[in-house]
Design a protein that fits this description.
Pfam families: Rubis-subs-bind. Keywords: Methyltransferase, S-adenosyl-L-methionine, Transferase. InterPro entries: Rubisco_LSMT_subst-bd (IPR015353), Rubisco_LSMT_subst-bd_sf (IPR036464), SET_dom (IPR001214), SET_dom_sf (IPR046341), SETD3_SETD6_MTase (IPR050600). It comes from Triparma verrucosa. The chain has 520 residues and is α+β, with helices and mostly antiparallel strands. The chain contains 19 helices and 13 strands. It has a 3-stranded antiparallel sheet with strand order 1-2-3, with no helix packed on it. The termini are far apart.
Length: 520
């Protein structure tokens, strides 16, 4: 397999060579002296946040302003790992021995970890907490084996939304991510208070702010591993410095034979290019909340975008006296299995299970008495819950369900202070600094709006097709038009669901005709 040509860097941007006294050089020497191997790689600190071998590269670390470049490599929080020479596919480019890893079990063995276990504390993220308490306690030791690693961890994580200023958080107005940020801060605070209540030692070595810092360090850097048959999580020095890129170019694992964590190339990588890890196929809200960045063009090779937005549906109370007779039945079915009255489902531009669950809940929420009776008591299908109504129950119900969907997404769109057009223009302009919190916030809300816009178009297309009196050829042309002008998932819905309704109406019409044609 040939090695791909490198992506050229703009000539005005550069990276800083690590000085012999740099904390990063000391860190690398510590790893090498303890058996780590990365002979074909080098760590680079960038003097500008846009300096990278790929234009959409993202970093786990906070980013300096390009208007004030670092005076030394130690001042830079923007780093990347680069190939020193051409690397072939299937090349083990990083090897870090077991003794350089920090694992959950090491945290459990500390006095704080033991107190957590003895008291059987119910923590929000127990694996993370054990890693956190280890580094918070161990970094207090000036002679710690891991001191060179602690020294290169970012002292501040201002790119993480839980540390954003109120002004920066306002940039997320309208986004459900604001609640997730608040929930994350509350969960970390509850964990801290719970641990200090049974082990005051934690408060003597770490403030709540320190605890939050440790949580986000661990959250953005830990690897889930199987080490000698034990499933655990670990911090892996050096490996956690690889930035994110999709599709993945490398793979990682713990090699039980060599007792090392290894990173292997999946394709040829040209000398000078940055080596990337893939943090996985994720919605931007997860990238931003857990890593402190959002990907501007967050799409897979097949064009799929995993960006999601939560849509909330509240049980709709119908108005007619006939429907009132079914209100208790509807509430019972809607809240079956103790599910809440307001339901939330995260959807992306897809026809996956979440989208099908959304459509199912809309059908139930929009149902009248007769339709609800058909859902819960009759028909060839057994509907266990509101998420199981995967087939249309009639033209009128489907139209009301789509009208409800349009109303919900249109109301959600109103909560944002800027439009899609305004966001797109801002991202193209010079005012939003690359890799800044302002830019990442704009990328996040724009992604949400595009999903909502898709479901508004979904509802409009469905209503148009359901209301139309179309012949077979006209219907086929409509499906083709929707696929061409809207999205293939909308066209698939029109073909399958609306087409299914048409077929059922015809079948019912033929049956009624046959029953009405008998002799008396």
């Amino acid at each position: 397999m040939s090695v791909a040509a490198p992506t050229p860097q703009p000539p005005s941007l550069s990276s800083l060579t690590l000085a012999p006294t740099s904390k990063y050089t000391i860190f690398e020497n510590w790893l090498l002296s303890n058996g780590a191997k990365f002979p074909d790689l080098e760590l680079r600190a960038y003097d500008d946040p846009t300096s990278s071998s790929k234009p959409d590269k993202e970093s786990k670390t906070s980013d300096p302003s390009p208007s004030s470049p670092p005076s030394t490599d130690d001042d830079s929080e923007m780093r990347g790992v680069h190939a020193l020479r051409d690397l072939p596919p299937n090349n083990v480019c990083v090897s870090v021995p077991r003794k350089c890893l920090i694992t959950v079990e090491m945290g459990k063995s500390t006095s704080i970890g033991q107190a957590i276990l003895r008291n059987n504390l119910d923590l929000d993220a127990p694996k993370h907490v054990f890693l956190m308490v280890f580094i918070l306690k161990d970094r207090k030791d000036p002679n710690s084996f891991f001191k060179p690693y602690y020294d290169i961890l970012p002292p501040g994580l201002n790119n993480m939304p839980i540390f954003w200023t109120p002004e920066e958080l306002k940039l997320l107005t309208g986004s459900y991510l604001l609640k997730q940020i608040s929930d994350r801060k509350e969960a970390i605070t509850e964990d801290y208070n719970l641990i200090t209540s049974v082990c005051p030692e934690l408060s003597s070595i770490a403030t709540l702010q320190d605890f939050m810092w440790a949580r986000m360090c661990v959250c953005s850097r830990n690897f889930g591993l199987l080490i000698n048959g034990l499933r655990t999580s670990a911090l892996v020095p050096h490996a956690d410095m690889l930035n994110h890129f999709r599709p993945r170019e490398t793979k990682w694992t713990f090699d039980n034979d060599s007792q090392c964590f290894t990173i292997t190339t999946l394709q040829g990588i040209r000398g000078g290019d940055q080596i990337y890890d893939s943090y996985g196929q994720k919605c931007n809200h997860r990238f931003l909340l857990n890593y402190g960045f959002a990907v501007e063009d967050n799409k897979e090779q097949d064009g799929f975008c995993p960006n999601e937005v939560p849509i909330e549906i509240t049980l709709q109370q119908q108005q007619s006296a006939d429907d009132d007779n079914y209100s208790s039945l509807k509430t019972e079915f809607w809240t079956r299995d103790s599910s809440p009255i307001t339901k939330r489902v995260r959807v992306c531009v897809s026809n996956n299970d979440n989208t099908k669950s959304l459509l199912s809940m809309l059908r139930v929420a929009a149902s009248n008495g007769a339709e609800l009776q058909a859902i819960t008591q009759a028909g060839p299908y057994m509907y266990r819950s509101v998420k199981d109504v995967r087939f249309s129950i009639g033209v009128d119900n489907e139209i009301r369900a789509m009208e409800l969907l349009k109303n919900i997404v249109d109301e959600q769109m109103k909560a944002y202070p800027t439009s899609i057009k305004e966001d797109e223009l801002a991202l193209k302009g010079p005012s939003l600094v690359p890799y800044s919190n302002d830019r990442h916030a704009r990328i996040q809300v724009l992604g949400e709006k595009r999903v909502l816009e898709h479901y508004s178009e979904f509802a409009n297309s469905a209503i148009e097709c359901l209301n139309g009196e179309l012949g077979d050829d006209e219907f086929d042309q409509m499906v083709e038009k929707v696929g061409r002008e809207k999205h293939h998932t909308i066209a698939q819905y029109v073909k399958d669901v609306v087409g299914g309704i048409r077929r059922e109406e015809r079948r019912r019409g033929r049956k009624e005709g046959e029953e009405g044609g008998g002799h008396f």
